[in-house]
Specification:
Helix content is 44%, strand content 12%. β1, α1 and β2 form a beta-alpha-beta unit. By secondary structure, it is α/β, with parallel strands linked by helices.
């Protein structure tokens, strides 16, 4: 859930939203003239939360900094790291190599702020320019492994502006070919790298039925989570990404069936064949709710 880093009013409500991750935004949600105030407000809020651990128990606190091709991001890091954020969201990331400069800075600054070196995680937005969209697959390659990587996510707004696209979805409300391709690459690269795949936001926060549909489809497609821009979206997304009782019951039945038949590669369950991939998926599903 994104929260503007310069809004004390919205930050005051952030801990009760129910999101798994609160992302304090220093980029798009903050006007250029308010950047410095946003850094100070964000740092102070983080320090308050760290002093009162019960306030955000079970919720991770992240910060979205400004892009790495600007001068703003260094001021962001220098200011907010004192608040010990769990992670940094990096917008408009060009490629894995660009993240290495940030990683170097974090290693230098973490000990100065009482943070264990290497513990601040990274979530890059990997689709916001044509260059970055062409490099999504690199995050899933072993030879370009990125330290600290917690997941990958994507966005459509900046990319559509960069290429001059006048639409992102077709008349049925389905992503057009370009954005479907980007979304699929993020999903594949995330799983190849063994990190979380985070789907993009649903921009119309008043469209609860539309959000419920796309969030459930995102869960079914294999995404780990989804971004939100309004508190009302959080419970809908949480519900969509929670396995149903029927799904859990089937997963337990699959695991139990293979346990009862050790050494057997394929079995029948309710009239259909199941094999090792079904068992692996069932185990992952059950592990996700423990």
């Amino acid at each position: 859930m994104f929260v503007p880093g310069d809004s004390e009013r919205k930050l005051a409500k952030a801990s009760s939203i129910g999101a798994d991750v609160i992302i304090l935004d220093l980029e798009d949600a903050v006007a250029p003239e308010a950047k410095e105030m946003a850094r100070e407000t964000t740092r102070s809020w983080l320090e308050e939360q760290r002093a009162n651990t019960d306030a955000t128990e079970g919720t991770q606190l992240w910060v979205r900094i400004n892009p790495l091709d600007t001068t703003q991001w260094q001021y962001d890091i220098e200011s907010v790291l004192a608040g010990k954020p769990d992670g940094i969201m990096v917008p408009k990331t060009a490629d894995p190599e660009q993240l290495r400069r940030l990683i170097t800075v974090l290693y230098e600054m973490e000990p100065r702020n009482g943070i264990a070196p290497g513990s601040t995680r990274l979530l890059p937005l990997v689709s916001e320019t044509p260059q970055s969209a062409n490099c999504i697959a690199d995050y899933g390659r072993a030879d370009t492994e990125v330290p600290r990587l917690a997941g990958l996510t994507w966005g459509a707004e900046d990319l559509s502006a960069a290429i001059g696209a006048s639409r992102k979805r077709d008349d049925r409300g389905v992503w057009t070919d370009l954005f479907r391709m980007v979304r699929a690459q993020v999903l594949l690269a995330s799983h190849a790298a063994g990190v979380a795949a985070i789907d993009t936001l649903h921009a119309d926060f008043r469209d609860e039925e539309g959000l419920r549909k796309v969030a459930r489809e995102s869960y079914q497609d294999g995404f780990s989570g989804m971004m939100a821009i309004h508190p009302a979206q959080v419970p809908i997304i949480n519900e969509a990404f929670s396995p149903s009782d029927e799904e859990l019951a089937e997963a337990r039945a699959i695991v139990d069936l293979f346990a009862e038949n050790p050494g057997v590669g394929a079995l029948q369950l309710d009239g259909r064949m199941i094999d090792q991939p079904h068992l692996d998926q069932a185990r992952k599903l059950l592990a996700s709710v423990r």
